[in-house]
Amino acid sequence: MLRLARRAGYAAIALAVLALPAYLVVADGAQTLQAFAPLDEALVPVNQFEYGEDPTGKPADILAIYGTPVGEPEAYLFVEDAMLVHPVEDPALAWVKTLPGQEPLKLELVRAFALRVGLAVFAAGTGLLLLAGFLGRRRTRSAAPEPVAA
Fold first, then answer.
1. Burial of 132 (0-12, 13-18, 19+ CB in 10 A)
2. What is the pTM of this model?
3. Which residues of 61-96 are buried (b: 16+ CB within 10 A; e: fewer)?
4. Nearest 5°: CA angle at 80, between 88 and 71?
5. Backbone angles phi, psi at 68, to 5 degrees
6. Contact at 8 Å (CB) between 62 and 92?
7. pLDDT in tens, the chain (150 residues)
8. Are residues 76 and 62 in contact, defined by beta-carbon separation less than 8 angstroms?
């Protein structure tokens, strides 16, 4: 029982320590994108005609052709190609569609989850090691011979 509790405690602490490097590896693949609510597909050619061949070149002006911006640019993970929009006016730009029920995974959410899980697993591992130490002390005290009175 003690050996199992110690091993589980050490394993839990090792997993907690590995949570940060795992987050950093996943965070390396994040893309900073502007989320937007897309307009109806039929309105995009009308807006392109309205803005002319060359909009002012500002990303906000080009974004007005395709939809309405939602919030500030954020870091996203594992964005599907179907959710990305590269405008014809400036192919270097990339935006992510926000459709009802289809929100891409945000880096901030993964960071918060990794931090909470890492702390919880570390606390559980520490608790197991403390329990094993307490039970080990009790066992050695009860197994010690009684002192003989002289």
1. buried
2. 0.69
3. ebbbbbbebeeeebbbbebeeebebebebeeeeebb
4. 70
5. -110, 130
6. no
7. 788 888 999 999 999 989 888 888 989 989 999 999 888 888 888 888 877 666 556 676 788 888 888 889 999 998 888 889 888 888 888 899 988 888 889 999 999 999 999 999 999 999 999 988 888 777 666 655 666 665
8. no
Residues contacting residue 6 through CB under 8 Å, at least 6 positions apart: 128, 129, 132
User: Helix, strand, or coil here: 13?
Assistant: helix
- What is the distance between the alpha carbons of residues 96 and 104, in angstroms, rounded to a whole number? 8
Contact criterion met (CB below 8 Å) for 43 and 65: no
56: tokens are 């002012």
